[in-house]
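Please review this one:
***
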Amino acid sequence: MKPSTLALPLLCLALGAHAQSTEAEFNALLKQRQFDAVEALARQRLQANPQDDLALWAWGRTVAGDPAKRAEVLLRAEACVAARPQSARCQHLLGSLYGAMASSGGMTQAMKLVGKIKEHLSEAVALDPKHFAMRMDLQQFYLQAPGIAGGSVRKARELATSYAAIDAPRSRMLLAAVHLYEKELPEAAAQLAAVQPGRDAELAEDLNDSLANLGFAQLQAPQLDAALKTFQRVVSADPQHAAAWFGQGRVLLEMKRTDEAIASMERALQLNPKLNAHYRLGLAYQAKGDKAKAVSAFQQALARPLSEKAAADARQRLSTLGG
């Protein structure tokens, strides 16, 4: 993805003064999804200092879905942990990259890596207990890993409750995540309703992400009216939230509001072209009777990571449509 014209001044400024660039500056580029700009800035800094954990960590947040780049950053992360074992960023990045490998490599690969994932994510939180993203990733490990591999709802809840003394609003978000895992949707909604970000933009952004997760859980329940209200709240607060636009589109499709569903999912893909939304978009266009656009969407869906069930269905629909 090439940086947009809007991002070029940011990139030029960063490359001109890379030694002074901060996590906030990396985050600004990440928020704009200017991943090429993040990589360019990171490489510049790492050339000057191969152990620059901030640059490596920021770059690593862009490569989970790109096996080639992920492999390069993985080698650097392993070297960083070896050279700087007290770096929470290096520990977290390595655990996260192992997690991405486990997710894409099947059960055998996952079982080989699960111990390393837990080790490095746990060490990151121990080194930087105030960092929300690091704590959240460790919590997700505890919620998603099987018990025999170290998963534990109790430990996931402890990560949330122990965070209250550090950051009470985000502690509620972590508690909401546990409630979502337990399918306790009213309890999750209550925790998020208690978070009032006010003028705190970063807290508002984290809250919107948590609300989007709630919306997807409500969609799966299915509680379509509640899900639609949740997604509408997020896109109203943050019109750039691609996942919420996609979630809203999925709800509208379930409600047979096809034209609105298409508009919402197309908006999601405008905001994030890499979003895995083409299969659902294909369903919407097929329901509308637009054969050409349905075929195009299903073909694009099959060119991306897709569940076996969805991939089989997309191929069947393409056969039916003559695509």
Observations:
- The longest helix spans residues 106-127.
- Residues 1-20 have pLDDT under 50 and may be disordered.
- DSSP finds 18 helices and no strands in the chain.
- The radius of gyration is 21 Å.
